[in-house]
Amino acid sequence: MFRLADYLEQHGRTSRRHLCPPASFWHAAHAHLTDPEDLGNLSDAADNRHRLQWAHSLRHRAADHGNTDALIHLAVLREEAGDRDGAEALARQAAEHGNTSTLYHLAATRVEAGDREGAEALARRAVDQGKSDALYHSAEKPDIFTRLWPYGVDPDGTAASPWRAPYASSGAHAAEAWTKPPRAGRSS
Fold first, then answer.
1. Quick one: which of 113, 141, 148, 183 has the fewest CB in 10 Å?
2. pLDDT digits (tens, 9 = 90+) for 138-184
3. 156 vs 168: CA distance, rounded Å
């Protein structure tokens, strides 16, 4: 086994950095690679080098092999192209593979497009998939989640009930109830 000298590796990396592999490389990669992660990384590399047809073909192949990032990317492209049914089908595939973020993204784009019913259906499907923790990471998402679940979602996927502070029925504010010491003769 031979190891390339460090100075040759550095020279090759700097002098060939902006060169793009020939079409035969992309064709061979498309025809022979089967690892979903490798296909996904290579589709991103093709996209960065403006080899958009190869990027699209490699992304489809990555999606066919179960790469959820590729499924999400393709779902977003379909949604932007106006193919809502196709985007939803890809989002469902990604959710079945354990990634529900695409359902939330599609719900957000549906709200922006004025389709509240479609957004609500997608948001409910995402929570039904058991990934309610994604609601906590969706601060940039539209108010559809707040409207559907104003108090959050319990771990079992049901809507959480409102929390009541102690002494709320007596008219005291929750902050005062927590900061004031208890009155003499009164147990808490």
1. 183
2. 444 446 666 666 777 676 666 677 765 444 444 444 444 444 455 55
3. 28
